[in-house]
Amino acid sequence: MAIDVIVPVYGNAGTVVEALESVARQSVFADVVLTVADDASRDDSWERIRAWGAGRRNVRTFRNPANLGVMANYRRLLAECRGEFVAPLEADDIWLSDHRLERLRDHLERSVGAACFNGFIVDDLVAGEQRPDLLSAARRHRRLSTFDLIADNAPASFSNCFYRRPALAAAFDRAAGHEGYDWLVNTLIAAGHGGFDYWPEVLSSYRVHGDGTWSSLSKREKASLIEATLRTLRTLLPARYERAIERRLSNLEEYAGG
């Protein structure tokens, strides 16, 4: 089954080629259409993307004439997708295993689920340490519920996720005009499709660095964004999730002051 890999880029000149190489090494790369969209970067990301993609028949590269913002850039990329599955990769992350796409595609082909995420390493360049994902201790397959995702953003990044295209496109449509990012999209998918699968094998590296959209924020700024996402979820999810959302909201003051 065809797989669309989508890579949004903004100011990632130092990391984007490494990210793209981790896609090109995939065992099923012949079945992949790789689409990269530079969101009017001010560095030389576009020049590096264009040079890397030149002559590769299954690689498409675009440059937005003006900055759209990350979610709008993702929507632009999704509009180009035609395959059954979609695998996003943030331009500062990498896939560690050459068999990642093969593993996750095979899993979803056997599963009734619409999405999954793999075990991953958090490469914290700020703290100078690497640590495993939140579910690593169990190292077993499981399906996270919507309640699990409300309680914690276990997938952590789009880079660790793999989707059936219709489910991802529908979640982005529902999220349009609302505050939120990967956590919002993944929770909407879980609510609409009976959960979100966890594949425990470590297949990717999620990088935390000082210039990151999330890692550069203060705890109070992070709490504000978490609150905005939770309030969006309260608007979009059925009433049965209200109490779980309220519990998470009640913990935000402690988080911000910690």
UniProtKB/TrEMBL annotation:
Q: Which residues form the Glycosyltransferase 2-like domain?
A: 5-168
Classification of source organism: Bacteria, Pseudomonadati, Pseudomonadota, Alphaproteobacteria, Hyphomicrobiales
- Name under which the protein is recorded: Glycosyltransferase involved in cell wall biosynthesis
Annotated Gene Ontology MF terms?
glycosyltransferase activity
Q: Which family does it belong to?
A: Belongs to the glycosyltransferase 2 family.
Concerning PANTHER family, the annotation shows: GLYCOSYLTRANSFERASE, GLYCOSYLTRANSFERASE EPSE-RELATED
**Keyword set, alphabetical order:** Glycosyltransferase, Transferase
KW Ion transport (keyword) present: no
Entries under InterPro entries matching the protein: Glyco_trans_2-like (IPR001173), Glycosyltransf_2 (IPR050834), Nucleotide-diphossugar_trans (IPR029044)
Query: Pfam families recorded for this chain?
Result: Glycos_transf_2
Region forming the signal peptide: none
